[in-house]
Amino acid sequence: MPLNKQQRQDLIRRIITEKKISTQFQLLQELRKLGYYNINQPTISRDLREIGVIKTARGLGPPCYNLAIDSQTITMANFRNKFKNFVQDIRHTGNLILIITLPGDAQGVAKVIDKANFKNILGTVAGDDTILVVVDKPGNVKKLLKTFNKARFG
């Protein structure tokens, strides 16, 4: 059954969120595995541009497609995806949380944290592979660590 444009773009979003896709050809293959043979490369190229997909580094592997995060509210699936795929370690002291990511991924993870609008986070500072999360008071750190680790480990 052919997909309309919205259904096709939703499917592309899902594939990019769930799998490491680094080329349009890989994305086309994933769509064909799902039985969608009537989609071509120019259509995928247009859809990626319209959706706002970007390529980001993932450690030592090739850059992969990711959904650009804009002013929309972050879904829990996006939040979990970022933590599961990019966060390597989480440490804390006092009212500070330090999140270690794969090289090049700290800013994307920090943006997800910022867009999630946690009431007890005053702000984040991101480098290349490290994020400093400033929490309003030390008593709220444990709750945030639980949320972050749940997203990271499922």
From TrEMBL:
SUPFAM superfamilies: C-terminal domain of arginine repressor (SSF55252), Winged helix' DNA-binding domain (SSF46785). InterPro entries: Arg_repress (IPR001669), Arg_repress_C (IPR020899), Arg_repress_C_sf (IPR036251), Arg_repress_DNA-bd (IPR020900), WH-like_DNA-bd_sf (IPR036388), WH_DNA-bd_sf (IPR036390). It is found in: Cytoplasm. Its main location: cytoplasm. Residues 83-149 form the Arginine repressor C-terminal domain. GO terms for cellular component: cytoplasm. Residues 3-68 form the Arginine repressor DNA-binding domain. One of its GO terms (biological process) is regulation of arginine biosynthetic process. One of its GO terms (molecular function) is arginine binding. Pathway: Amino-acid biosynthesis; L-arginine biosynthesis [regulation]. Keywords: Amino-acid biosynthesis, Arginine biosynthesis, Cytoplasm, DNA-binding, Repressor, Transcription, Transcription regulation. Pfam families: Arg_repressor (PF01316), Arg_repressor_C (PF02863). Regulates arginine biosynthesis genes. Belongs to the ArgR family. This is Arginine repressor. The lineage of its organism: Bacteria, Bacteria division WOR-3. The gene is argR.
